[in-house]
Amino acid sequence: MSTLAVEVSALEKAFGTVQALRGVSFTVRPGELFGFIGPDGAGKSTLFRILTTLLVPTSGEARVLGVDPVKELWALRRRVGYMPGRFSLYPDLSVRENLTFFAQVFGTTIQEQYELIRPIYAQIEPFAERRAGALSGGMKQKLALCCALVHRPDILFLDEPTTGVDAVSRREFWDLLAVLRQGGLTIVVSTPYMDEADRCDRVALIQAGRLLRVAAPAEVGAAYEGPLFRVRGGERFRLIQSLRGYPNARFVFPFGDSLHYTDARTGADAETVRRDVSAYLAGEGFGDVALEPIGAGIEDAFMALMGTPEALTPREAGR
Amino acid sequence: MMIEAKGLTRRFGDFAAVDGITFDVGEGEVFGFLGANGAGKTTAMRMLIGLLSPTGGEARVAGFDVYRESDRIKRSIGYMSQRFSLYDDLTVRENIQLYGGIYGLTDAQIRDRTAALLARLELEHAGGERVQRLPLGWKQKLAFAVAMLHEPAIVFLDEPTGGVDPVTRRQFWEMIYEAAHRGTTVLVTTHYMDEAEYCDRVSIMVAGRIAALGTPAELKTRFNAASMDEVFVRLARPANGASAEDSMSSVDDETSPPLAERGEGPGEGGSTGLGERLSDAPGAGGGG
Lengths: 319, 288
Hints:
The complex is a heterodimer.
Chain A: E1 6-15, E2 18-28, E3 33-37, H1 44-51, E4 59-64, H2 73-77, E5 80-83, H3 95-105, H4 114-124, H5 137-149, E6 155-158, H6 167-182, E7 186-191, E8 202-207, E9 210-215, H7 217-222, E10 228-232, H8 236-244, E11 249-255, E12 258-263, H9 270-283, E13 290-293, H10 298-305, H11 314-317
Chain B: E1 3-12, E2 15-25, E3 30-35, H1 41-48, E4 56-61, E5 64-65, H2 70-76, E6 77-81, H3 92-102, H4 107-120, H5 136-147, E7 154-158, H6 166-181, E8 185-189, H7 193-196, E9 201-206, E10 209-214, H8 216-222, H9 228-236, H10 241-249, H11 274-277
Parallel strand pairs in B: 3-8, 3-9, 6-7, 7-8
Antiparallel strand pairs in B: 1-2, 1-4, 4-5, 9-10
Helix pairs in contact in B: 3-4, 5-6
């Protein structure tokens, strides 16, 4: 038996000519809150479906709780909890009926598992008799989480539980995951929201079926090759064009109310670079623009690691 | 002013989904329209694009009255949503031609604008590709360009960047800046709070009312917050979560995912859901 919660090696999955996973390898330790971060179409759902026994990989190896999800699916099924990306509970059944149903399928009851699900169920219990279809987005996600938990799984797979949910509900959902993690549960979760990376112990950045990086959130930014600056002032649209015209520009991206500028002179002294770029911008008519050296965040790192993003190669990426 | 709303209200029975909102959006402005699920954004947006009649208050969009001139509003605006924007089974070029025809452009205009649009998006080689073969990010950029084909005075973008990678998301915002730079007014909704900071001004709706309106810098100062995410969290769920959720659940038009359940919203009794009506509206269409 492996001591790892998840062990995946060179996993590939093709759907016809579409290569959804291209050689994915990683491990998840017991008790970890492990996040997959990447856009739609990156392969997150395919990976989750393989690990929860719902899809068979084209090649490669996987172990979940030491069990092979292809050969021993029935042994694994009752030990994993899975919350799919789309709301897949019964909209015409009430909150309580949905939860009772999932408990009974696994031969248990809400009462037996009450302590386990209480932190989440307490928030939806006031609406126990409401039809699941009539719940708000955030509440549906909480109910789905309860249903995925009610058979007391040893590992939980949550596929984009916060997509399309407002910022407040997203926060609440992550707070609940933190509570479950403290209880010792291993949780694997996916999200397209880069700002949720910080809630995870480790993250895997995934793009076009490949893992770009697996690391603790803080390490992802720390490995970024700068110098990187926040640029403020000037009319954004013209400033972007102008900065892209600078011969040493590596990346220029809008970031909220400012821009992030990465210079191509990797490892150069930030102050020297700042002066050079400021002088260039002054010559371009941007005398009042301020450059401030900053550390990279997850998004900076993700974009740098993307290399040739899908955006730049529509012909290939469409295949 | 390109959008002027005064006390704009929409009731469904005794429930006010939009409860007397007042705001203006100027020419060339990028205006962020934010709110929690169920706060009333979608209902407000439906009124502004002429798909739903208000039950009170006034609003003019591109100078036209939302009660009496909704057809003229539809011709003056572009609309893009995440799900219903382009026909998957048609090629890129066919989609552009189709919408050009719906907008009433001449053949010569369609020809010129198709060429210009494909060149600008660097999609010349993909003109004959069916839209379903394009990566999501390209679909979204193409959908935006198509919503702008008739050079509308105002473009409404409903969750335009959901699920796309961070580079494409930024390319999308650059297209928004470019449109604004040319004088187009942009009204955009998003669940990415960092994106609120890309807007010139934002409004945050809570329980049918505008709870805050200003530039991102003003709002962060006023609420003593480091980010728009913090501003949003403080405003959107001020007291206890349960009661907010309770009122929210009766307005299910903005639950996750953003557009999937529109037909079940408060519109289900008297009015038609947005999804069914999109083929009537400029800048929108069935999803193939």
